[in-house]
Amino acid sequence: MIKNRFFWIVAVICIVIDQITKSWVLQNFQLNESWPLWSGVFHLTYVRNTGAAFSLFSEDGSWLRWLSLLVSLALMAMAWFGPKLPLWDQLGYGFILGGAIGNGIDRFLYGYVVDFFDFRLIRFPVFNVADVCINVGIACLFISIFRKSQPSNGQGSRGAEGQRSRGE
Protein backbone atom coordinates (compact mmCIF):
# COMPACT_ATOMS: atom_id res chain seq x y z
CA MET A 1 0.00 0.00 0.00
CA ILE A 2 1.22 3.51 -0.82
CA LYS A 3 1.93 5.75 2.16
CA ASN A 4 -0.15 8.95 2.15
CA ARG A 5 -2.22 7.66 -0.76
CA PHE A 6 -4.89 10.37 -0.49
CA PHE A 7 -2.13 12.97 -0.93
CA TRP A 8 -1.09 11.40 -4.24
CA ILE A 9 -4.65 10.76 -5.46
CA VAL A 10 -5.79 14.33 -4.79
CA ALA A 11 -2.65 15.81 -6.38
CA VAL A 12 -3.07 13.77 -9.59
CA ILE A 13 -6.78 14.59 -9.86
CA CYS A 14 -6.06 18.31 -9.41
CA ILE A 15 -3.32 18.31 -12.05
CA VAL A 16 -5.48 16.46 -14.58
CA ILE A 17 -8.55 18.69 -14.10
CA ASP A 18 -6.41 21.84 -14.14
CA GLN A 19 -4.59 20.90 -17.33
CA ILE A 20 -7.77 19.74 -19.12
CA THR A 21 -9.56 23.00 -18.34
CA LYS A 22 -6.58 25.11 -19.41
CA SER A 23 -6.22 23.14 -22.63
CA TRP A 24 -9.91 23.72 -23.36
CA VAL A 25 -9.49 27.46 -22.79
CA LEU A 26 -6.41 27.61 -25.03
CA GLN A 27 -8.26 25.76 -27.82
CA ASN A 28 -11.48 27.78 -27.62
CA PHE A 29 -10.59 31.33 -26.59
CA GLN A 30 -8.56 34.17 -28.00
CA LEU A 31 -6.48 36.12 -25.49
CA ASN A 32 -8.78 38.41 -23.43
CA GLU A 33 -11.89 36.86 -24.97
CA SER A 34 -14.72 36.57 -22.47
CA TRP A 35 -17.84 34.41 -22.39
CA PRO A 36 -20.47 35.53 -19.89
CA LEU A 37 -22.04 32.63 -18.02
CA TRP A 38 -23.98 35.09 -15.85
CA SER A 39 -23.53 38.52 -17.35
CA GLY A 40 -21.82 40.96 -15.02
CA VAL A 41 -21.36 38.29 -12.35
CA PHE A 42 -19.34 35.33 -13.67
CA HIS A 43 -17.51 35.06 -16.98
CA LEU A 44 -14.92 32.78 -18.51
CA THR A 45 -12.16 35.13 -19.63
CA TYR A 46 -8.81 33.98 -20.99
CA VAL A 47 -5.93 36.00 -19.56
CA ARG A 48 -2.24 35.33 -19.11
CA ASN A 49 -0.71 35.83 -15.69
CA THR A 50 3.06 36.21 -15.76
CA GLY A 51 3.13 36.85 -12.01
CA ALA A 52 1.92 35.17 -8.86
CA ALA A 53 -1.46 35.46 -7.15
CA PHE A 54 -3.21 38.77 -7.92
CA SER A 55 -0.54 39.36 -10.62
CA LEU A 56 2.14 40.12 -8.04
CA PHE A 57 5.68 40.09 -9.51
CA SER A 58 4.26 40.22 -13.04
CA GLU A 59 7.16 42.37 -14.28
CA ASP A 60 9.56 39.42 -14.03
CA GLY A 61 7.90 36.31 -12.69
CA SER A 62 10.26 33.88 -14.43
CA TRP A 63 11.67 32.83 -11.05
CA LEU A 64 8.18 31.62 -10.06
CA ARG A 65 8.59 28.50 -12.21
CA TRP A 66 11.54 27.47 -10.03
CA LEU A 67 9.59 28.24 -6.86
CA SER A 68 6.73 26.02 -8.09
CA LEU A 69 9.22 23.24 -8.80
CA LEU A 70 10.91 23.59 -5.41
CA VAL A 71 7.60 23.59 -3.51
CA SER A 72 6.40 20.58 -5.51
CA LEU A 73 9.58 18.60 -4.85
CA ALA A 74 9.50 19.47 -1.14
CA LEU A 75 5.87 18.35 -0.80
CA MET A 76 6.55 15.10 -2.66
CA ALA A 77 9.61 14.38 -0.50
CA MET A 78 7.57 15.04 2.65
CA ALA A 79 4.84 12.62 1.55
CA TRP A 80 7.28 9.97 0.33
CA PHE A 81 9.96 10.03 3.03
CA GLY A 82 8.05 11.54 5.96
CA PRO A 83 5.57 9.91 8.30
CA LYS A 84 2.05 8.84 7.40
CA LEU A 85 0.04 12.04 7.57
CA PRO A 86 -3.43 12.45 9.06
CA LEU A 87 -6.21 12.52 6.44
CA TRP A 88 -6.79 16.30 6.46
CA ASP A 89 -3.03 16.92 6.10
CA GLN A 90 -2.87 14.51 3.16
CA LEU A 91 -5.79 16.26 1.49
CA GLY A 92 -4.41 19.73 2.18
CA TYR A 93 -0.90 19.04 0.95
CA GLY A 94 -2.26 17.05 -2.00
CA PHE A 95 -4.42 19.95 -3.16
CA ILE A 96 -1.49 22.35 -2.75
CA LEU A 97 0.83 20.04 -4.70
CA GLY A 98 -1.74 19.64 -7.49
CA GLY A 99 -2.13 23.41 -7.76
CA ALA A 100 1.60 24.09 -7.62
CA ILE A 101 2.31 21.54 -10.35
CA GLY A 102 -0.63 22.72 -12.46
CA ASN A 103 0.57 26.32 -12.47
CA GLY A 104 4.20 25.18 -12.67
CA ILE A 105 3.49 23.29 -15.88
CA ASP A 106 2.11 26.49 -17.41
CA ARG A 107 5.12 28.52 -16.28
CA PHE A 108 7.56 26.05 -17.83
CA LEU A 109 5.59 25.51 -21.06
CA TYR A 110 4.36 29.04 -21.77
CA GLY A 111 6.15 31.42 -19.41
CA TYR A 112 2.78 32.44 -17.91
CA VAL A 113 -0.22 30.89 -16.20
CA VAL A 114 -3.52 30.43 -18.04
CA ASP A 115 -6.33 32.02 -15.98
CA PHE A 116 -10.01 32.06 -16.89
CA PHE A 117 -12.46 32.14 -13.93
CA ASP A 118 -13.65 35.75 -13.82
CA PHE A 119 -15.93 36.81 -10.92
CA ARG A 120 -16.88 40.32 -11.96
CA LEU A 121 -19.48 40.97 -9.29
CA ILE A 122 -16.76 41.40 -6.66
CA ARG A 123 -13.99 42.41 -9.12
CA PHE A 124 -11.87 39.44 -8.08
CA PRO A 125 -8.68 38.71 -10.06
CA VAL A 126 -9.10 36.08 -12.79
CA PHE A 127 -7.92 32.65 -11.61
CA ASN A 128 -7.89 28.95 -12.54
CA VAL A 129 -8.45 25.43 -11.18
CA ALA A 130 -4.90 25.22 -9.78
CA ASP A 131 -5.52 28.38 -7.76
CA VAL A 132 -8.75 26.89 -6.41
CA CYS A 133 -6.86 23.71 -5.46
CA ILE A 134 -4.22 25.66 -3.55
CA ASN A 135 -6.89 27.51 -1.60
CA VAL A 136 -8.85 24.32 -0.88
CA GLY A 137 -5.56 22.80 0.34
CA ILE A 138 -4.98 25.71 2.71
CA ALA A 139 -8.54 25.31 4.02
CA CYS A 140 -7.92 21.59 4.62
CA LEU A 141 -4.76 22.40 6.59
CA PHE A 142 -6.72 24.89 8.72
CA ILE A 143 -9.31 22.16 9.37
CA SER A 144 -6.47 19.81 10.34
CA ILE A 145 -5.02 22.35 12.76
CA PHE A 146 -8.46 23.01 14.25
CA ARG A 147 -9.16 19.30 14.67
CA LYS A 148 -5.78 18.73 16.38
CA SER A 149 -6.42 21.55 18.84
CA GLN A 150 -9.77 20.09 19.96
CA PRO A 151 -9.72 17.96 23.10
CA SER A 152 -10.38 14.36 22.16
CA ASN A 153 -12.31 13.44 25.31
CA GLY A 154 -14.89 16.22 25.05
CA GLN A 155 -14.15 17.58 28.55
CA GLY A 156 -12.76 20.95 27.54
CA SER A 157 -9.31 22.10 28.50
CA ARG A 158 -9.23 20.32 31.87
CA GLY A 159 -9.27 16.84 30.31
CA ALA A 160 -7.85 14.09 32.53
CA GLU A 161 -6.98 16.54 35.31
CA GLY A 162 -10.67 17.31 35.73
CA GLN A 163 -11.40 13.60 36.18
CA ARG A 164 -8.65 13.17 38.76
CA SER A 165 -9.75 16.11 40.88
CA ARG A 166 -13.37 14.94 40.98
CA GLY A 167 -12.33 11.42 41.94
CA GLU A 168 -10.15 12.45 44.88
From TrEMBL:
The chain crosses the membrane at residues 6-25, 63-81, 93-113, 125-146. PROSITE patterns: SPASE_II. Signal peptide: none annotated. One of its GO terms (biological process) is proteolysis. The active site is at 115, 131. The keyword Nucleotide-binding does not apply. The keyword Glycosyltransferase does not apply. InterPro entries: Peptidase_A8 (IPR001872). Keywords: Aspartyl protease, Cell membrane, Hydrolase, Membrane, Protease, Transmembrane, Transmembrane helix. One of its GO terms (molecular function) is aspartic-type endopeptidase activity. It is found in: Cell membrane. It is a multi-pass membrane protein. Pathway: Protein modification; lipoprotein biosynthesis (signal peptide cleavage). Its main location: membrane. It is an enzyme of class 3 (hydrolase). It catalyses: Release of signal peptides from bacterial membrane prolipoproteins. Hydrolyzes -Xaa-Yaa-Zaa-|-(S,diacylglyceryl)Cys-, in which Xaa is hydrophobic (preferably Leu), and Yaa (Ala or Ser) and Zaa (Gly or Ala) have small, neutral side chains. GO terms for cellular component: plasma membrane. It holds the Pfam family Peptidase_A8. Its EC number is 3.4.23.36. PANTHER family: LIPOPROTEIN SIGNAL PEPTIDASE. This protein specifically catalyzes the removal of signal peptides from prolipoproteins. Belongs to the peptidase A8 family. This is Lipoprotein signal peptidase. The gene is lspA.
